[in-house]
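Please think about what follows:
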Amino acid sequence: MADLRISDLAAASSVQLTDLIVISQDDGDGTYTSKKIEAQNFDVFGGSRNFGPREDNPTSPSPVNGDIYFNTIMGEWIFYDASRGEWLTIDSQILDFGRGQTLGSGNYYRSSADTISYSATSGHVAAWDGVIVGLGYTRDDADQADFGVTANGVTVAAVTSTATNGSTMALDGDFSAGDIIGVRNDGPNATTSAYGWVVIRFKGIAAESASSSSSSGV
């Protein structure tokens, strides 16, 4: 069965976008199961809502996990992440980090950009407000290590482990547009031959921010 766009149905019939549409399923024994769908100005695909192109995060009706829209200011598809309570970009960015030698506690790892180390003033400059959502690593040692993701030198997300490898996509570390993102050994021990990655997603633009961006020409 093909997906049905509420907007297409409204255009081809007398259905109004404020109506309730009743869908009945033939159970095959002379009975029917009915469900009601509120026809708002969005499309429904397999249970998730597509709010269409717009400048800011939808707020009504209340979003649920997996709802999407296209942010025309950012030029990005945005989805609602219910676990973090945020509208986030579907596309993510991956930052790598590592150090082939031993790196002592309190020191920054290096990026793949030559041999440049991350720092409070050197690293990935965030284009928009965003969230650190994941981190993975391998290393040779098995002492306790704290891999800290920093924004302007302040740790906003971290993974603590005594394993030689691991990963998580459950981080929730906020940063702001313009922050410099880096990765540091937050201790308490040195790491040896560490390599890893960090996943970041940007936040959709809130209504007040969209208004400010539009008026300033950004």
Notes: The radius of gyration is 23 Å.
